[in-house]
Amino acid sequence: xxxxxxxxxxxxxxxxxxxxxxxxxxxxxxxxxxxxxxxxxxxxxxxxxxxxxxxxxxxxxxxxxxxxxxxxxxxxxxxxxxxxxxxxxxxxxxxxxxxxxxxxxxxxxxxxxxxxxxxxxxxxxxxxxxxxxxxxxxxxxxxxxxxxxxxxxxxxxxxxxxxxxxxxxxxxxxxxxxxxxxxxxxxxxxxxxxxxxxxxxxxxxxxxxxxxxxxxxxxxxxxxxxxxxxxxxxxxxxxxxxxxxxxxxxxxxxxxxxxxxxxxxxxxxxxxxxxxxxxxxxxxxxxxxxxxxxxxxxxxxxxxxxxxxxxxxxxxxxxxxxxxxxxxxxxxxxxxxxxxxxxxxxxxxxxxxxxxxxxxxxxxxxxxxxxxxxxxxxxxxxxxxxxxxxxxxxxxxxxxxxxxxxxxxxxxxxxxxxxxxxxxxxxxxxxxxxxxxxxx
Length: 440
What we know:
Layout: H1 30-69, E1 77-80, E2 83-99, E3 102-106, E4 111-116, E5 123-124, E6 129-133, H2 136-179, H3 184-224, E7 226-228, E8 233-238, E9 245-246, E10 254-259, E11 264-272, E12 284-289, E13 297-311, E14 314-324, E15 335-352, H4 353-357, E16 383-391, E17 398-409, E18 413-416, E19 425-429
Antiparallel strand pairs: 1-19, 2-11, 2-15, 3-10, 4-6, 4-9, 5-8, 6-7, 8-10, 11-14, 12-13, 12-15, 13-14, 15-18, 16-17, 17-18
């Protein structure tokens, strides 16, 4: 095999036999080689160090930017503000529209309807005939009563004649006894016959009176076959037609409903027992119906009834609100929404009701369980509790409770009697960072 030649950069030793012969290779100086190697390695490490420093600078810049632009923790509590304005305390309810005066007209006798003179919405006057019932049966009863009275009158005449006859026999018996001819038995018999005759006269006369009373009743029933209007007004209901038979055996059937004046209406509103104490007669009310959205009808509370109504455990009391209806827009039976203003405060300092309802979340222990809290004492009349910020550090806010004096409320805001200038009032709480703060 051919001998491989040594690399140029590798130092080769010459054999001893070649001493004195000049070698074509020269061993490089050791200091130069080390210097060249140190230059190559130094430049490599400098490049690596530069890249590392550049990366560290970029990372530090990004972290610094993120730290400088990091948003603050969202507020834990939602704040509210007081305001100036009017506060109106109202009681809301619903009821049914009815005429101020309405009369249900019925039939006092049974029979077949022969004529109906009025219809729905007919204007009637007091005494007008509304309908007629067939009078044939009642006319026959009158004729029968008259005949019975005539017969009874004849019986009275016969009884009177009998009294005269037995009176003569009694007087004759008395004479015979006085003369000693007649017996006492004949006298007593004659006296008995006379007494019976007198009683018969009284009975027949009483029978005549009874028959006359029956005749008057029959005549009255005949008059009842014509149904009259008891008031001036308008017919708002008609429940019969000609040919229909009405039966008034146990209860008078309602045939017509007449309203006296539809320009005066009333609403029977059901007032909750919690609100009835704020109502009194004479206060104003507003009435609205679905038929006329946005239109208000003025009314006045005329009566708050003491009789309770219980429905599914809810107790209500009826309040009567009289309403003017000059254009006859309100109709009987409409469902009305009633708003009764019980109190008002003009240009008052108002507090959102959410602040009075707010209660902070109870603190928890390290296991996440709620720490029991002592119950708060009951509030006195016209007192309320609110919470205000005591520490505004973002993400670590703290609140403290404050008792305040309050007045009437309209359901959204409350009349505030305590000065809260400079205090930040809490109305809600959120632990969700996605929720944003809002001011009521």
